[in-house]
Design a protein that fits this description.
The protein has 478 residues and is of the alpha/beta class. Helix content is 28%, strand content 27%. It contains twelve helices and 23 strands.
Length: 478
Amino acid sequence: MTHSNKSSDPSSPATTALVIGAGQAGGPLAGALAKAGWQVTLIEREHVGGTCINEGCTPTKAMIASARAAHVARTSGALGVSAGPVQVDLNGIVDRVQGIVKDFREGSRSGVLKAGVELLDGQARFTGVRQVEVTLNGGGTRQLSADYVFINAGASPRWPELPGVRDVGAMTSRDILLLRELPAHLLILGGGYISLEFAQLYARLGSRVTVVETGERLLPREDEDVAAALQTVLEDEGVTFLLGAEAIQTHKKDGEIKLDIRQGNEPQTLTGSHLLVAVGRTPNTGGLNVEATGAKLGKHGEIVVDQHLRAAENVYALGDIKGGPAFTHISYDDFRIVRDALLHGKERDFHERPVPYTLFTDPQLGRVGLDRQGARKLGRPTRIYTLPMSSVARAIETGETAGLMRCVVDDATDLLLGATVLGSEGGEVMSALQLAMIGGLSSADLRNATLSHPTLCESINNLFMGKPETLSGKEENG
């Protein structure tokens, strides 16, 4: 779809736009449209910057850095360095983290205002086709309508249907970031990506940590040996995993949290000081009444969009609220897709883009494209190259040998179809392999590339020097 900006004609009013949610798609889009001459109103119910800046990437990764510092100090003896007893100042950690959040948030807010965007602090609700009522945080309401509407209202932590969970003071991934007392025993419901980051973080800060997961193994979307290797690392750091365990109910007794679970046929009661629920996220469509503007909701409450992110005529949904991969870089790319369609006449199908991601445990898990289990379902011959981090010179030198590198290669073209890196700076090494995929480099190109020694990326040479596992493409039916 192309768009002719009416503001180019001085006698015509500017094209109007409402942007609901100032996340990593909404904020940049509002600014880009305003700079192009549109009349843009951005509505944000809480904080500019969205989940990433306020309660996701920025604060969690800053806290992980503090936890890693404690871990390095505690384990420095392995490198021949003696350190005294590690003392953790959680108040100091939280103050540092929230200071970073405040700076990022204020920078984002300043950016949209400088672009000429009208910013309203309040809650939006659709009252008709591209018509919105805004309940302002300071009191009062505004009735607004526009030529275009863009919804970037994000998602929130999902609460499990567990009797008593709200009565015991359970926390979400958002709440725990403001916790200023170190849990003596942190119970975590859910064994997904968010759960594992917090499990290692608090174990390194000095908490006892128990993770309760209904599945029989961690991270079912990852190769089984990758998930098992990460589990072993976390167990070695003191995290306890109860897999195949169902939470039944929870209550408080004598100031402690009691969590009744059933693992197999065996009931048991766990006792903890704090409870974190990390069982997924829910799109923030409740109360928006998006159906009034012609959009439809999916079975999980997400806004249904076409391949160009349109939910209805001149209505778009971007970021987590549309479902699918909930990553900041995906939200930002949603912004680029919509911007290019409306301002530059260039349409792109969002289904065609790669979806890289990194789990910021230590070691990191970086992933893009196919892994081994994905290759088994592909239906054509592939080669699987795997290199243990214990064979990576740089990892040996730094004492970080847990994990592996893995690449899936198309047997006919020799091009990379996917990469998984569980290891030191796994996200960075995965990104290097993704750039090779974008550039159309073959495994032979990477095998023979001259890469700086001794770096982690240099071991991409070694990865493709090994003997691969070959898949015929018939494994799924065999």
